[in-house]
Specification:
Elements: H1 6-19, H2 23-33, H3 45-56, H4 61-66, H5 68-74, H6 85-95, E1 110-111, E2 114-115, H7 122-125, H8 135-149, H9 159-174
Antiparallel strand pairs: 1-2
Helix pairs in contact: 1-2, 3-6, 8-9
């Protein structure tokens, strides 16, 4: 991995603090623009399939469809069309994690690099460590995000994002 010089690294940290965006986002941007590091490409359907096969310990789609653990795990996910890449991406997001090209996404619904409408990763969205964070840490992080995205905030309010943050908060506090 190519390193960026200390001046750029310092500027990434400054912008991170100013705009409350993880400095990794600015560092990644600098690497793409300045160092000509290419961002990750979307996974191919075959890469997605291999990851899902490995997760469910099968060797092909026919065996996956017959797998009881797959049937139980996907019960309630709606109809999956395993001939389409979108279904494989949905499975990957649900069982494997964040797709490589969706790491540190930006745009509507993206908080701390997570698209909250694609992923249920409340700890990451709240920038907390599930092993060391206290109830007060969860409450403080929630309070900051909810103030920013509250629908009554004329500059940054977003009812849809606000509702998802509330869902994440309920998830984190229910398990406490």
């Amino acid at each position: 991995m190519m390193k960026i010089d200390s001046a750029i690294n310092h500027e990434a940290q400054r912008l991170s603090q100013k705009y409350n965006i993880p400095d990794e986002v600015f560092e990644c941007f600098a690497k793409v623009v300045i160092c000509r590091v290419k961002p990750p490409k979307p996974a191919t359907i075959n890469q997605l399939k291999k990851a899902i096969y490995k997760y469910f310990k099968v060797s092909n789609t026919d065996k996956l469809k017959k797998s009881e653990s797959f049937k139980m795990a996907t019960d309630g996910m709606g109809k999956l069309n395993l001939g389409r890449k979108a279904s494989w991406e949905k499975l990957y997001r649900e069982f494997i994690g964040v797709l490589p090209h969706e790491e540190w996404e930006l745009g509507h619904g993206c908080i701390n690099g997570v698209n909250i409408f694609k992923y249920a990763l409340p700890w990451r969205v709240f920038e907390l460590d599930p092993k060391t964070s206290t109830d007060d840490d969860v409450k403080a992080s929630y309070r900051n995000l909810s103030k920013f995205y509250h629908p009554d905030n004329p500059e940054t309010g977003d009812a849809e994002v606000f509702e998802r943050i509330n869902q994440f908060y309920r998830t984190l506090t229910a398990s406490a």
